[in-house]
Structure formats: structure tokens, C-alpha cells
Amino acid sequence: MDYLTLEYNGDVAVVGLNRPQKRNAISDAFIEELNDVITDVEANAKAAVIHGHGPHFCAGLDLAEHVKKTPFEGVHGSRRWHEVFGRIQRGKLPWFAALHGAVVGGGLELASSVHVRVADQTAFFALPEGQRGIFVGGGASVRSARLMGVSRMTDLMLTGRSVDPVTAERWGIVNYVVDAGEALAKAIELARHAATNAPISTYAIINALPRINDMGTDDGLFVESFIASFTATSPEAEERLNAFLSKKVGKVARPGE
To answer: Is the CA virtual torsion 102, 120, 16, 174 positive or negative?
Structure first.
């Protein structure tokens, strides 16, 4: 592969953005390679982690390629980003991101498509499209805005400023903040836990929750009832619930225990 690395750590796939000389900027070929990797990962893993090689996670769109496109080519390119990132967001597996250095523009759009984000203290987050004379095209107006809220995203796009990982956690952009250099290990640890979940529950969590969030209250609660019943009556759910009732598995503990 030219733009990505892929290795398997037990049931966890570890995908690396491997274009460090370009701060892991995303090109069309990069997107197509990521699409192929997603197919491989879904066939061979139960959870996945994505991270960046070099000093940055991803500094966004490859602008040198973008300026050569016609408007129609730009639309098709944007829709392809939506399609491939959508395979991560609403696919078969839980995806975790280990973030460090620049998580900027398209890099933040990619990070917003995963389910859990871990940032180390070196990470910084920005959407500088306004400064470049462009607009987000990889899904940020939906995915990133729903994480941080439209007001905060508007601020980032209008001012071009960056925010640190502590602010990003407070805004809901990331779920965990760890010391420098520890994001990948933490993300793999979390992915290993997620890989032990019942596949039907995982699929419901990553596919039903965002859809229910898009619904009105009554519709969402109605759909929740069907998802809850469908998952609870699966053979694996019966086995796991009986194991809990017979005290073969432990109860949920307090943090730190």
C-alpha cells in the first residue's frame, strides 16, 4: 500500500495513515486505498484503530490536487469522501482513533467518522477552510458539527483558530485525553474491550444510535423498543445474560476498582 499501513493485533486491526511527508494529507488515491482497507478490516477484525505515522495524525485535504478539479469533479470527490467515511461510521465494526499533532480540516472529518477518539497532549484541532477560501467537504458539516455543535464549528471556521485537546474534550470532539505518545496504546486497549462485545449489540450501537438521534422523540423510542427486543432475544444475548445471572461474569465496578 502507498498511503496506509495495516496490521492485526489479535482481533483489532491497526490502520496507519502513512504519508508523513505530506502530514498525511488526504488525496483521491488515499481515499480509494482506505476503502480497500476497510473491506479487509471488516473481513478479519472485530474492532479497528486508525492513527497517523509521523508527527501528525492528518492535516487534511491535499490542496495541490484539489485546486485542479472542476466543480463537478469536486462534488464527486466530496461524495466519495462521504461514502468511504460512512463505511467507518455505519459499518460492522467499532472504530477508534488515536490522535496526535495536527487533526485539521479533512483530518478532523476523518476522526469525526470513528466512534471513539483518543487524543494525546500534542494534538490540536482546526477547520481552516474559511482561511483557504473553501468549505468543508468530507462530512464535517454533519459529523463534526454534531460532536461540537454548530456554534463552535462556526467559530473554528470563521477564525481559523486551533484548539487544544483539553478544549476538544470539553467540546465533545474527543472522548479521552492522554499523555504525549500514549494515544495509540490507549485506543488499542479500548478497541480490545469493544472487540469482546456481542457483534449484534455492537452493530446496533454504532448504527441505531445515530439514526435514533436523528428522529423525533416518539419515533426514536419506538425504534429503540424494536432494537432492544431484537438484540435481547439473540442466542448470544441469552448465553451472556445467563452467564451474568449465574455469576460467571462480574458486575460493573466503580472507576478505578
So the answer is: negative
| Alpha carbons 34 and 18: distance in angstroms, whole number | 11
- Convert the pLDDT of each residue in 120-134 to its tens digit: 999 999 999 888 888
Active site residues: 109, 129
The Cβ-side half-sphere exposure at 232, using a 13 Å CA radius, reads 6
Flag whether pLDDT at 250 surpasses 80.
no
